[in-house]
Amino acid sequence: MALLDIRNLSIDIETAQGKIRVIDKATLNIVDGSIHGLIGESGSGKTLIAKAILGLHSSNWTVTADRMFLGKTDLTKLSQKERREILGTEISVIFQEPSSYLDPSQRIRTQIESVLPKKTWQQRFRPILSKIKRVTVPSRRLQIKELLHKVGIQNDVAVLKSFPHQLSEGVCQKVMIAMAIANNPRLIIADEPTTAMESVTQSQIYRLLYKLNQLNNTTLLMLSNNFANTSSISDYMTLVYCGQTVESGSYKQIMSSAMHPYTQAMLKTMINNEEINEHKAQLYTLPGNIPSSNQLPIGCRLGPRCPKAQKICVKNPTLTIQKGHSFRCHYPSKLS
Amino acid sequence: MPSLLKVNNLCKSFKQPFGFFGSKEKVAFGPVSFTLEKGETLAVVGESGSGKSALVRTIAGVLKANAGDIYISGNSIRTLSSQQRCVSVRMIFQDPSSSLNPKMTIGKILNAPIELNTNLDAKQRHQQILDTLKLVGLLPDYLAFYPNMLSSMQKHQVAIARAMILNPDIILVDEILTTLDISLRFKIVNLLLKIQKTNGTSYIFVAHNMHLVKHMSDQIMVLHQGKIVEKGAAEEICDNPQHEQTKYLLLTHQPDYRK
Amino acid sequence: MLINNGFNEDKIQSPLRYIWSIFKSKSIAVVAMWVIVFLVLVSLFASWLVPHSPLLQDPDKMLLPPYWIDGGSIDHVLGTDDLGRDTLSRLFHGIQYTLGGALLITFFVSIIGMTIGAGAALTKGVKASVLHHLLDALLAIPSLLSALILITFFGPSYINCLFAIALSLLPQFIRASYLAIAQELNKQYIIALQLDGATKTRLFKYGILPNILEPTITILNRLFTMAIIEIATLGFLGFGAQLPQTELGSLIANNMELIYLSPWLVAFPGLAIFITIIIVNVFAEGLRHAVIEGEE
Questions:
Q1: Domain at B5-252: CATH code
Q2: Measured between alpha carbons, how far is residue C33 from residues A52, C22, C39, C99, C108 in Å?
Q3: Which residue of A has its CA nearest to C4?
Q4: Which strand ranges, in their side-by-side order, compose the sheet holding B89-92?
Q5: Is A333 inside a domain boundary?
Q6: How do B5-17 and A319-322 pair as beta strands?
Q7: Mean pLDDT calculated for residue range B149-173
Q8: C1–chain A nearest CA distance, Å
Q9: How many Å apart are CA C162 and CA A146, to the nearest integer?
Q10: Which of A33, A132, C200, C279 is the most buried (most CB within 10 A)?
Q11: Cα gap A268→A217, rounded to integer Å
Q12: Is residue C49, in this structure, part of any structural domain at all?
């Protein structure tokens, strides 16, 4: 069952150079209980898609979508306030620079407490209740402690007492994850959670996210620019290039039968990583550079850089779907 | 024949305020000694806080060393003028979008180092700029552009061009690859390798990605808490690490989460 | 910096031109700019613009109201005071003293302050720290108070009042420009330029000055506003412009006893001060936003 179903999401942004279509008919289908990797280079519009899902866009954006469903709720029909309520309870977000998203003047305990669900009346009268009825009502303190243990922070007492700047980037990210899962959301959007982190911390965070998905069955949307790392934990993957979703499918489909030239180029960068090629040899890259947002090519945006491009590529290819494996390309072919 | 770069017991520590009036020394790195030959690449790896960035900055001259000597082609750096030092050692900063002056055109940015450090006239300078642009693969049209009009790859190319413009012997590269996308990263690695091949430049670079480090470098130096814990040929260190820290760095890269 | 002209061709503009083109799109700020130009012209050519001499007394036409009120005359558009002097002429001359004085103060203080601030930021050691702590100590005294103290030294006159205000505003300006430059010095391109072996002057001219536009506009705006208010305040208190001189603050003070008889005599100079300050702030704020947008 699809938890998040987005069809033909387009975003236009008003700029000094006129209206720019930054996201062009993006389609995203996230299966409940899976890890979905949304992979694209920086500037490809991953964050924009995430912001559109959250409803955090600014006034000069025009967001249009044929379909945008979270479970059974139609996100396009909700008011700003209802959207805001969904955020934090149904969807939560993990950002890329955790230390800048935590309040520097507040202790970690206060910050975690502020995102916890409201106190139930039993919790409020816990001291009295426990005397009268001998029921065990979980205290706030215990709740926070459990939360921190879930994300792998063992020395919870010390962490809770400290300020964000006293903690390392990795621990800050774990705190952010703890805050994100506090309300048991259905969907967690992780916006490049490990960029600018050391590879040691990176793998810790990845492992933690994977574990959360496995144990709590939380659906994860992972935004990332690192194909190699993200592919190793995702069940499904969608690749974005310059605001167009070029290919999406399950891990197996992408890894063994990628159809789009861009996906294939990404796969090659990964193979390069693993194989031992000649010392100091040139590495494989697509020719050309990513176009800037005001000089986007028409039609398939990979066109000018694509090794297989033909005349017809100036038209935007239609979406082909084969057993849940979808791609937009005029000349799809398997990598030999 | 002396080595191109010889670093001898280099130390650096920062003063940190401690208590009311006193100050405490915090060691960034040291003592560190190593040599670098022409056309070679030395990779400096280590966890954050291991002092690798400070080491590169000290060699570049941004920071002053507390003790130890740096020799370039046998001459101590103390005897060299700042111009001579500038011509032989150049640095590429971490983030090109903040290391290029937003209010100057690319032409002016590239012109400044030649104007300050050589005696070339305007025409020769222009030729030098064009040659360097060609080396990094940029069109001369970009000379009139301002940095914020360029894409991130082009900014990196300009940053590399600024380092290459004086044809230095050594280029110090401070973690430029960490925050980049994989395809950009590969492009820059390719560019750096190409420059090394054509000009015989030596690199000292700070990096995280052990695969790229292995691919690019001849020597690897592993720093841990400011001390060299392992140093040797790239192949040897990657295939047969001796120190715990090296093993740790190699191990944590690309683990399989699926199991 | 790329501006698309109808042919889908991108033209390269220098950052200043680009900022200007953004500024032009902010209509309120542009209006404010033209009003400022008008005010500056008024203060420059007040003697030629006015219909009457500001000191010409007319015993037949005393305390005339503005012409749109019954009893007013078109000859004296804004009416006359208790000696039959034309209010409009006096107002124009008042703007000359107040606005002109504030412009002079801003000009000299900004040049001197920027030089000292840059000196303090670019040097290290005893010179910098003496400058630093001395100015910090001066900052503890409110600027109006220090201006009053200086006036009692110099003796009350318009020129002395300008001197006193300039001197009292100088420490604040040095402090602000020092902070802006010191912040800029940490940027990577400055370090890169230093590594290239750039001299201090070159560093300042090419590296720092073009990049501190935004804070400079803010502190210049504050300086100018403070200067207007302090000139008017000292004039009102009688320490500034002396009697035949028609400074806006002193105009208000002179006409205070007539406030029930003809309130516009007090209202017009007050409005003039108020509008000038608002207009300058609107202009500066528009410019600042244009700079911020241009730098993105």
A1: 3.40.50.300
A2: 39, 14, 10, 15, 21
A3: A17
A4: B89-92, B170-174, B202-206, B41-45, B219-224, B227-233
A5: no
A6: unpaired
A7: 85
A8: 9
A9: 68
A10: C279
A11: 32
A12: no
Within a domain: A175:
no
Nearest to A273 among B151, B211, B248 (CB): B211
Is A335 part of a structural domain of the chain? no
Q: Are residues A205 and A263 in the same domain?
A: yes
CATH number of C192's domain: 1.10.3720.10
pLDDT tens column, A275-303? 556 677 777 777 777 777 777 778 788 87
B67 closest CA partner among B44, B33, B18: B33
Q: How many domains does chain C have?
A: 1
Domain with A233 in it = 2-90+185-327
Range of the structural domain that residue C263 is part of: 81-295
Beta-bridge mates of residue B222: B45, B230
Assigned domain for C60 exists: no
Among chain C residues, the shortest Cα distance to B82 is held by C197
Total domain count for chain A? 2
Q: What is the per-residue pLDDT across A218-259, written as a single tens digit (0 to 9) for each?
A: 888 888 887 777 878 888 888 888 888 888 888 888 888 888
Amino acid at the residue A158: A
- Same-domain pairing of A83 and A208: yes
- Say if the Cβ atoms of A18 and C4 lie within 8 Å: yes
On whether any CB of chain C is under 8 Å from the CB of A18, the answer is: yes
DSSP code of C151? H
Q: Check residue C243 and report its DSSP letter.
A: T
Helices (H), chain C: 15-24, 27-44, 46-49, 87-122, 126-139, 143-154, 158-185, 188-195, 200-202, 213-237, 248-254, 264-295
Checking ipTM against 0.85, whether it exceeds it is: no
CATH number, domain at A319?
3.40.50.300
The predicted pLDDT at position C2 comes to 52
Tokens 């501190």 correspond to C212
Alpha helices (H) in B92-225, listed in sequence order: 96-99, 106-117, 122-136, 152-164, 182-199, 210-216
The C-alpha atoms of residue C208 and residue C185 are separated, in whole angstroms, by 7
- Interface residues on C facing A, Cβ-Cβ cutoff 8 A: 2-4, 10, 22
Q: Which residues does chain B have within 8 Å of residue A273's beta carbon, measured at their own beta carbons? A: 211, 254
Neighbors of chain A with 3 or more C-beta pairs under 8 Å: B, C
Q: What percent of chain A has pLDDT over 90?
A: 0
Residues in chain B closer than 8 A to C184 (CB atoms): none
Beta bridge partners of B219: B42, B233
B205 burial (CB, 10 Å; 0-12 / 13-18 / 19+) is buried
Extended beta strands in A236-283, E state = 236-241, 244-250
8 A C-beta contact, residue C252 and residue C270: yes
* Of the partner residues C2, C197, C295, the one whose CB lies closest to the CB of residue B116: C197
Cβ–Cβ under 8 Å, residues B141 and B160? no
How many Å apart are CA A5 and CA C167, to the nearest integer?
A: 67
Round to whole Å and give the CA distance between B32 and C23: 54
Q: Let me know whether A157 and A286 are in one domain.
A: no
Of B98, B103, B162, the CB nearest to C210: B103
Give the C-alpha separation, B201 to A318, whole Å.
49
Q: What does pTM read for this prediction?
A: 0.80
Given an 8 Å threshold on Cβ–Cβ distance, is B99 in contact with C192? yes
Residue indicated by tokens 């006409």:
C255
Neighbouring subunits of B (3+ Cβ pairs under 8 A): A, C
- Chain B: nearest CA to C196, how far in angstroms? 5
User: Cα separation of C173 and B75, whole Å?
Assistant: 47
Q: How far is CA A252 from the centre of its chain?
A: 20
**A239 DSSP β-pair partners:** A39, A247
Closest approach of A18 to chain C, Cα-based (Å): 8
| Cis upstream peptide for A317 (omega within 30°) | no
Residue with tokens 């967690």: A188
The reply to whether B254 touches chain A by the CB within 8 Å rule is yes
